[in-house]
Structures are given as structure tokens and as C-alpha cells.
Design a protein that fits this description.
Blueprint (H helix, E strand, L loop, with lengths): L2 H58 L10
Length: about 70
Amino acid sequence: MNEDDLKAIVAKYQQKSFEFFNQNIVFEVQIERLSKKVAELEKELLKLSSAQESFSAETSTPKKRSTRGS
């Protein structure tokens, strides 16, 4: 390998390093955004689960029959 070959290799290495660095930043931002979305959805799921539990408890309690005017 001569000096020009080595320069080309170093230039390609720098280009690829820059591309991978930028990709890494984009992926980190996407991960952060999606992690926040997951946390929001988990909160909503807990809220809906507790609402469903309280609804189930209310509807499963037997109600007295009314004896109107018999």
C-alpha cells in the first residue's frame, strides 16, 4: 500500500465514523422518545385497570330487589 491508499482508507474510515456517530445520536433520541411513550402508556394502562376493577366490584355486588306495590 502506498500513501494514497492509506489516505483513502483513513478518509473512508472518517466518513463511516461520522455516519455511525450520527446514526447513534438519532437512535438514542428515538429510544428516549419511545421510552417516554411507553411510560405514558403504562400510566394509562394502570389508570384503566383500576377503573375496570372498581367497575367490576360495583357491578358484581348483588342488588336488593325492590318490592314495590306487591
